[in-house]
Amino acid sequence: MAHILIVDDEQEIGRFLTRLFQLKKMNVTYIDSGRAFDDLDRIDQFDAAFLDVRLPDRNGLDLLKELKKRAPSCKAVVMTGYSTVKTAVEAIQLGAEDFLEKPFEDINALEELVDHLTKRVDTAEYKQAAIEAGAFLGTSASMHELYRLAYKLASKQVTILIEGETGTGKEVLAGFLHRAGSRTEQPFIGINCGAISESLLESELFGHAKGAFTGAAFDRAGYFEVATNGTLFLDEIAEASHATQVKLLRVLETGEFFKIGDPAPKRTSARIIAASHSSLEKAVAEGAFREDLLYRLDIVKLTIPPLRERRQDIPRFIELYGQKSGFAFSFSPEAMDAFIQYNWPGNMRELVNTLQRLSVLYADEPVITIHMLPEKMVRPGTFQKTLPTPARSFESEWRRFSNRLADLYNGDELVQLDELLHMMKRMEKRTAEAFIKKTLKETAGSREQAAEKLGISKRKIRYYLNET
6 pairs with which residues across the strands? Predict the structure, then answer.
């Protein structure tokens, strides 16, 4: 029989919850203050606890911290009629399973929540949901904490802002929030605010009436209307124009919008998830983004860590990608080390694109070596040690060829040999000069970097370029 703890200074709430849980054949302990909580003999006897945020003598979040310290397995739910959603999210970050807003409007949902908590559901549910959404968590603690928090927020009607560098998987996380929530059977619609023009973006988001503009031959529903019971994902929200930002602000504040050319307002209950690869706070400081819109979007912020902060998971991802895509080659230790050490500015998207490129170019090769990788992935010094550069290879091979020619000729043909060698020297110099100029361009004119990359001295560079 489950044992429930209720901490709330409102007697009516306490009596109501006590009676509700007792009817479900549960043991209930009801107290009304932080002092009474401190006097409890055994906190670890409880399976679930319902904690009011505002008590006369204590902050409910402090009780939550103490509860999770003394009884880590006890499932906690925070109840609030005062705080903002941000406080409720803070409670979840501190270990609460959920939050409830008072007064309780849906008793059935409350009962379902209690049943869910007392079943001792596997805390790794979020992992399976992440796999189904196409996310890769690996062993990164930050990624697991991110998706664990997102899983708890998935069913809440709360606007979420996702920030993360390009290619980190913001749309994947948005899809996870949709699939793990209560709207999974409803539409999930995503739009990149920076990929289309301002006029077209407005029509895509809000729709238009027939005759609203040239070419509007029929009424068209916008994404806010289509996704009214589902989720609307606004990617790269920072790229939206100021005019569009004003209209987005109205929707978030009132739930109302106007189709282009239609004076009658329409309502939407679409759940909004926005994303940006750049800091919206910085965009506000620079005057590129509305501060009031940021306040509406930044109710809950989820930040995805870049790939370079979880390098240890790259080999496992490559293995899983190979299984999924069907490529059969493996990687040499040097090549795998290059994958791990590279900074991946394009994050997961760049990693996937690199693997796709290798699978196309070297489909028949059993092992991918460091020679086959894009040059940008090879650490300084590694490429020169494992593969001769064109200039060094040309220079050494040409010298060997010249010496071999000298061995083949006798004294009667020295004149012809001298002429041939002189011609070869001119060809060598022109070819080396071309390699050097190309490398100098790649190193932005740095002689030192070019010399290191080519495996020759800076003096040799001056010689080949006819410099004194």
Answer: 30, 50
**Strand ranges inside 155-198, DSSP E:** 160-163, 188-192
Question: Could you say which residues of the chain have pLDDT below 70?
Answer: 82-85, 118-124, 379-430, 467-468
C-beta separation of 67 from 43 below 8 A: yes
CB 150, CB 180: distance < 8 Å: yes
What is the spatial distance between Cα 260 and Cα 251, in angstroms, rounded to a whole number? 14
Alpha carbon of 452 to those of 380, 441, 465: distances in Å?
9, 14, 17
Q: What is the torsional sign of CA 367, 368, 369, 371?
A: positive
Largest CA distance in the chain: 118
Model confidence pLDDT, tens digit, residues 149-197: 899 888 888 899 999 999 999 999 999 999 998 888 899 999 999 888 8
- Secondary structure class of 3 (helix, strand, coil): strand
Structure tokens at 152: 């708890």
Rounded alpha-carbon distances, angstroms, from residue 1 to 26, 44, 90, 119: 6, 15, 30, 11
Which residues fall within 8 angstroms of residue 259, CB to CB, at 6 or more apart?
206, 207, 208, 209, 212, 219, 222, 225, 266
- Rounded to 5°, the CA angle 50-52-58 comes to 125
Nearest-angstrom CA–CA distance, 383 and 113: 58
